[in-house]
């Protein structure tokens, strides 16, 4: 049977891990390659780099980081952030990324996903969605540009459409939950996993190991993504897996 | 000096595959060079050949056919001279007689079978993406040092799978709603649906077994 995946995510700015990590014995805790190596050794099922570099001049640094990571980590690597052209996807894949996540560009032009999937295969096109609940209208809305712009597009309609165009996986981040350490928005995740037939990664809000279990059991997510609980050494990937295994989740 | 050639025809996983082979080769006692194959002449230099592959069956086939003289030289090397061969993911699927992804496309026909869509049963997601356990159908040197009790877990990403015609060519399977072909083999040819270059220690072990294999 297919295992539930645990994915540590690194925000990378100008080639450095944002806010750093807390690994002892690490020569440079801000070096994405070194941190990815630690997660590889801990048995992470995949690593995700999110490039949040704003300046145009430094955008190419991510390619170099992906290349160096792929030289030492023999595990799946997903890279996203600022992917707006088909050439970005090609360069990332050739650098050693297995999957590329697309966010704003997919919202701006849904056919970008169709074109990318036709060219490189659905299996490597992840669509990342930043979702925020609109309580007044009782729906979730799609945000873009790092959560700064509300498109007012209904998340559930959007994911159905984007999957029909060729998205091979969805990375769903709840903006309401992100940073709160109170768990995923499992209601949203469940609504999405109910309507799409591609793997769904739950993201945003993990504060403890039970939250990872809940993402799988309540949200029916195929994979759970977390950052701070792993970066600051609160838990290792292996501890997370042991915990999940004890609660009946099929992990590697 | 043994030369292992990895065919470079623009497939996405070429960098990872090359690095994985280089990493394994470094730890072995024999002298090995990893060469990226760009043309038919390069093939002639190699003792072993690896065909990686990511993307659609038709595109990968076209990528190989478009390199002048590559396919006939490869067939001579593998089928006539018996050089050990490893096909990875779509590189394995191309060994079939025919592929049904998108438009129907003939494969190399080195191992009898067809490449068809993974049967979808309720609740099963496509692509089959992630870590899954493989079970061995029969003993083979490619599985040396790997156990067959559920701990050999490797990374898959695919929507189509290889249906072998002859059961004897099926070396390993995984369970994804139905039995999905994970490893095939015949004479000096091996194919794996999973990505050894992305399967951490177990993947590197598999690569090591291929390098040490004398069919």
Strand content of chain B: 25-35%
Helix percentage range of chain A: 25-40%
How much is the radius of gyration of chain A in Å? 17 Å
**Which ranges of chain B are low-confidence, i.e. pLDDT below 50, for 5 or more consecutive residues?**
none
Sheet with the most strands: spatial strand order of chain B: 2-1-3-4-13-12-11-8-9
Number of strands of chain A: 11
Structural class of chain A: alpha/beta
Average pLDDT value of chain A?
93
User: Termini separation of chain B (Å)?
Assistant: 19 Å
Count every helix of chain B, treating DSSP H or I runs of 4 or more residues as helices. Answer: 6
Beta percentage of chain A is 15-25%
Low-confidence stretches of chain A: none
Dominant shape of chain B: globular
Strands side by side in the biggest sheet of chain A: 1-3-4-5-6-9-10-11
Amount of helix of chain B: 25-40%
Report how far the terminal alpha carbons of chain A are from each other: 10 Å
What can be said about the biggest beta sheet of chain B?
9 strands, mixed
Number of helical elements of chain A: 10
| Rg of chain B, alpha carbons | 16 Å
Question: How would you explain this protein's 3D organization?
Answer:
The complex is a heterodimer of chains A (252) and B (215). Chain A has 252 residues and is an alpha/beta fold. Helix content of chain A is 36%, strand content 24%. Chain A has an eight-stranded parallel beta barrel with strand order 1-3-4-5-6-9-10-11, surrounded by eight helices. Chain A is globular, with a radius of gyration of 17 Å. The mean pLDDT of chain A is 93. Chain B has 215 residues and is of the alpha/beta class. In chain B, 26% of the residues lie in helices and 32% in strands. Chain B is built from six helices and 13 strands. In chain B, the strands form two sheets. Chain B has a nine-stranded mixed sheet. Chain B has a four-stranded mixed sheet with strand order 6-5-7-10, covered by helices on one side. In chain B, strand 1, helix 1 and strand 2 form a beta-alpha-beta unit. In chain B, helix 1 packs across helix 6. Chain B is globular and about 50 Å long. The mean pLDDT of chain B is 94. The chains are: A alpha/beta (252), B alpha/beta (215). At the A-B interface, helix 2 and helix 3 of A face helix 1, strand 8, strand 9 and helix 6 of B.
């Amino acid at each position: 049977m297919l295992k539930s995946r645990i994915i540590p995510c690194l925000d990378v700015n100008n080639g450095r891990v944002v806010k750093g990590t807390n690994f002892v014995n690490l020569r440079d805790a801000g070096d994405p390659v070194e941190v990815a190596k630690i997660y590889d050794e801990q048995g992470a099922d995949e690593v995700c780099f999110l490039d949040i570099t704003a300046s145009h001049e430094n955008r190419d640094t991510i390619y170099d980081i992906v290349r160096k990571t792929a030289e030492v980590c023999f595990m799946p690597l997903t890279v996203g952030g600022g992917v707006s052209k088909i050439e970005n996807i090609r360069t990332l894949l050739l650098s050693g990324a297995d999957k590329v996540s697309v966010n704003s560009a997919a919202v701006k032009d849904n056919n970008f996903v169709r074109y990318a999937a036709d060219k490189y295969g659905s299996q490597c096109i992840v669509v990342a969605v930043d979702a925020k609940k609109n309580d007044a209208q009782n729906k979730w809305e799609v945000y873009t540009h790092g959560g700064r712009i509300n498109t007012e597009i209904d998340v559930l309609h959007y994911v159905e459409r984007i999957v029909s165009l060729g998205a091979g996986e969805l990375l769903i981040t709840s903006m309401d939950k992100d940073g709160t350490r109170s768990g995923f928005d499992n209601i949203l995740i469940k609504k999405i996993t109910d309507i799409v037939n591609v793997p769904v990664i739950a993201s945003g809000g993990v504060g403890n190991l039970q939250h990872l279990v809940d993402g799988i059991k309540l949200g029916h997510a195929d994979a759970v993504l977390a950052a701070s609980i792993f970066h600051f050494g609160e838990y290792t990937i292996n501890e997370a897996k042991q915990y999940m295994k004890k609660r009946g989740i099929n992990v590697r | 000096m043994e030369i292992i050639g990895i065919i470079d025809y623009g497939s996405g996983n070429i960098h990872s595959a090359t690095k994985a082979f280089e990493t394994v080769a470094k730890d072995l006692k024999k002298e090995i060079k990893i060469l990226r194959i760009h043309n038919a002449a390069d093939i002639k230099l190699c003792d072993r050949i690896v065909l990686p592959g990511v993307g659609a069956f038709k595109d990968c086939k076209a990528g190989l056919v478009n390199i002048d003289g590559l396919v006939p030289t490869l067939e001579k090397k593998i089928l006539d001279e018996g050089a050990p061969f490893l096909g990875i993911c779509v590189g394995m699927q191309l060994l079939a007689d025919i592929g049904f992804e998108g438009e129907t496309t003939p494969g190399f026909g080195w191992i009898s079978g067809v490449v068809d869509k993974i049967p979808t049963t309720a609740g099963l997601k496509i692509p089959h993406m992630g870590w899954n356990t493989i079970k061995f159908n029969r003993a083979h040197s490619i599985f040396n040092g790997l156990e067959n009790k559920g701990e050999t877990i490797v990374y898959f990403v695919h929507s189509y799978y290889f249906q072998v015609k002859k059961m004897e060519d099926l070396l390993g399977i995984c369970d994804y709603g139905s039995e999905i072909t994970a490893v095939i083999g015949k004479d000096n040819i091996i194919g794996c649906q999973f990505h050894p270059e992305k399967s951490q220690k177990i993947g590197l072990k598999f690569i090591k077994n291929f390098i040490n294999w004398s069919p």
